[in-house]
């Protein structure tokens, strides 16, 4: 599941409430992992990504939630279609990169998934690369969210500025509308 939040509140007021909401979810049965982040290119925009062992556990956690998230959220139910985690989890990262993709109805989603794997391939030689996750919307099989995580923001910037990344990203754009958002993981403290 992914939640997208938009707020006009100052980060010092909004972020603690969002993190408290995230911490409450961790104690629910079936919870696997999560990461909450601020999109660095869009002030007031946040994402929260959770992984659960099953839909029934996620739905039960939603019904048991004692308090609503701190701001209206757009939520989307997704399934994992690809994961590579050679170096930790998104929660351990210093930088996240989110890709939202809408595959053209005339394009082959399998081709998009392979092309996303090729994009990830441009990252794996970098020691600071943490991993990737490709999620597909349950409601729209042509809608994807990709997540890449990095332990060093400079390594991320270096890879994304390079010709191999740009070439692979252009390849994705051949089958889908793609938006790329760097993000800063939020941590308590």
CATH class, anyone?
A: Alpha Beta
Question: Mind describing the biggest β-sheet?
Answer: 9 strands, antiparallel
Helix content: 25-40%
Low-pLDDT regions = none
Give the domain tally. 1
What's the helix-strand series? EHEEHEEEHEEHHE
Neighbour order of strands in the largest sheet = 4-1-3-2-9-6-8-7-5
User: How does the overall form come out from the CA principal axes?
Assistant: globular
Number of extended strands:
9
Percent in strands: 35-45%
Radius of gyration: 16 Å
What is the helix tally?
5
Mean pLDDT: 89
CATH topology: Alpha-Beta Plaits
Helix/sheet category: alpha+beta
Judging by the overall fold, what is the CATH architecture? Answer: 2-Layer Sandwich
Distance between the termini: 25 Å
Which oligomeric form is depicted?
A: single chain
SSE layout and pairing:
Elements: E1 2-6, H1 11-26, E2 31-39, E3 45-52, H2 55-64, E4 73-76, E5 78-84, E6 95-103, H3 109-121, E7 129-137, E8 143-150, H4 153-161, H5 163-173, E9 176-185
Antiparallel strand pairs: 1-3, 1-4, 2-3, 2-9, 5-7, 6-8, 6-9, 7-8
Helix pairs in contact: 3-5
Describe this structure in words.
The protein contains five helices and nine strands, in the order βαββαβββαββααβ. α3 runs antiparallel to α5. The longest helix is centred in the first third of the chain and has 16 residues, at 11-26. It is an alpha+beta fold and 189 residues long. It has one domain (2-185): 2-Layer Sandwich (Alpha-Beta Plaits), CATH 3.30.70.
């Amino acid at each position: 599941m992914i939640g997208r939040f938009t707020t006009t509140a100052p980060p010092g007021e909004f972020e603690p409430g969002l993190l408290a909401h995230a911490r409450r979810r961790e104690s629910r049965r079936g919870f696997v992992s999560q990461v909450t982040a601020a999109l660095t290119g869009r002030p007031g925009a946040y994402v929260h990504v959770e992984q659960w062992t099953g839909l029934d556990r996620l739905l039960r956690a939603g019904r048991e939630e004692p308090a609503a998230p701190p701001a209206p959220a757009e939520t989307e139910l997704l399934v994992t279609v690809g994961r590579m985690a050679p170096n930790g989890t998104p929660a351990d990262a210093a930088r996240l990169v989110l890709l939202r993709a809408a595959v053209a109805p005339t394009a082959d989603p399998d081709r998009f998934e392979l092309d996303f794997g090729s994009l990830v391939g441009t990252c794996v030689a970098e020691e600071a690369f943490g991993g990737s996750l490709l999620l597909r919307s349950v409601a729209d099989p042509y809608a994807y969210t990709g997540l890449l995580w990095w332990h060093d923001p400079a390594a991320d910037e270096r890879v994304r500025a390079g010709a191999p990344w740009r070439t692979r990203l252009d390849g994705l754009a051949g089958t889908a509308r793609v938006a790329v958002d760097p993000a800063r993981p939020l941590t308590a403290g």
